[in-house]
Amino acid sequence: MTNRLYSLLLLALSAFSLAACSDDEDGGGLQGGPNANMNVATTDPAVLRLEFPRLKGGDSKVIIYRTGSRKYDQDRVNYAVEWDCAKKSQRWSCYQMHQGYTGDYKRVTNNLYYNDTKNLASGEYYSTDYIKKSGYDHGHICPNADRQYSYDANYQTFYMTNMQPQYRKFNGYDDTGSDQGEGLWVRMEEQVREWVPRKQTDTLYVCKGGTIDNEDQIIERLQGKLIVPRYFFMAVLLKNEMGYRAVGFWAEQKKDAWRDDEPLSAYAVSIDELERLTGIDFFCNLPDNIENSVEDHYVPKVWGLD
After folding, report:
1. In this model, does residue 17 exceed pLDDT 70?
2. Distance CA 19, CA 244 (A)
3. Measured distance CA(115)–CA(122) in Å, rounded
4. 199 and 240 in contact (C-beta within 8 Å)?
C-alpha cells in the first residue's frame, strides 16, 4: 500500500470514528437529538457533564469535589466519585482534561490519605486504612499527576474515596536495582495524558475505576472488609474540532509481572465492550445517536495504539 493511499485510508477511518458536535466544552447544544439514558440532575447539575456515566443510585452517592476558582473549570469541578455506601468502596472517578489543567502542584500531602468525613457519614466508610501495610498500594483513580493546577485540586485526589488497592507492579514503577519496570496502569495513565488535546477548546473526558460489583471480578477483601478489584478500566472520550471519538482500557491487575513489554493495544476495547464487562453506562449524557456512533468501535491507529 502506498503512503498516500494509507494516509487516505487512515483519514477515512478517523472521520468514521468521530461524530459531529458543537463548540460547547461540556456538551450543551450538541447536535444529536434525544437522549433516553441521560442522568437526572436531582441534586447537582454537574452530573449532566460528559465525563459522568449513568448513576447507579440505590446505596451509592455521587461526591463532586470542587475548587474555589472558575479559572480552570466553569463549574469549579475538580473530579467526581461514585461511592457505594454499602460496599464502602468507590465505583469510579471521572474528570476532564484539557490544556488548562497544567501546573506545578505535585503530591502535596506527602503520601498521606484522608477519609472524606464531610461528604460521608461515619457508617459509610472504613475508619481504618486497610490498604496501609497490606501489600497493596494506594491506587489513585483520578491521578494526582492529572490535577497539578492548584494545591486544593491535588490535595483532593488523596481522599480515600479516590483510592483502590492496587499491586505495586500494576500501579507503580521502579527505576533502580535489578527488578526495574513500569506498571501497566501507570502506562495507561501516561497514555491518557498523551491524548490531552493541545487546543484549549478541546477536551478529554475520562472515567476510571475498579470492579466491585461481581464476586468473580474481586481478588479478595482486606481483613474481610475492603474490596480489592481484580480488573481496572478506563473510558476515554475525546472532543475536538472534528467531533467525538472514544476508546476504553480493560486490564486484570497482577502481582508478579511488570508487563511493560506488552502493547497497550492488547488492552484496548470499545466502550460498548467496556460497558458489557463493567455494567456501567459510560458517556450517557451524549445524545443517543452520537453515543451509539462513538461507542460501538474504535480505530487503534487513530489513537496511536499500534
Report:
1. no
2. 5
3. 10
4. yes
Q: In 3D, which of 32, 27, 65, 81 has the Cα closest to residue 49?
A: 27
Give the single-character DSSP code of 293: H
Show Cβ contacts of residue 79 under 8 Å, excluding neighbours closer than 6 positions.
Answer: 65, 93, 94, 95, 142, 147, 156, 157, 162
Counted residue by residue, the chain has a size of 306
**For the residues of 183-225, what is the DSSP string, one character each?**
-HHHHHHHHHHHTS-SSTT-EEEEEEEE--S-GGGEEEEETTT
* Rounded CA separation 296/155 (Å): 36
Distance CA 18, CA 241 (A): 10
> What are the grid coordinates assigned to 92, written together?
469510579
Nearest CA to 270 out of 253, 286, 283 is that of: 283
Q: Which residues sit opposite 229 in a β-bridge?
A: 218
Q: Among 176, 290, 292, 165, which residue's Cα sits nearest to residue 222?
A: 165
Across residues 38-55, what is the average pLDDT?
95
Position of cell 500501579?
A: 171
φ/ψ (deg, to 5) at 187 = -65, -40
Sign of torsion over alpha carbons 112, 113, 115, 116: positive
State which amino acid sits at residue 222: L
CB atoms within 10 A of CB 98: 20
For the stretch 49-97, pLDDT in tens is 999 999 999 999 999 999 998 988 999 999 999 999 999 999 999 999 9
The greatest distance separating any two alpha carbons of the chain, rounded to the nearest whole angstrom, comes to 64
Residue that the C-alpha cell 484496548 belongs to = 268
Q: Residue 276: which H helix or E strand, with range?
A: helix 271-278
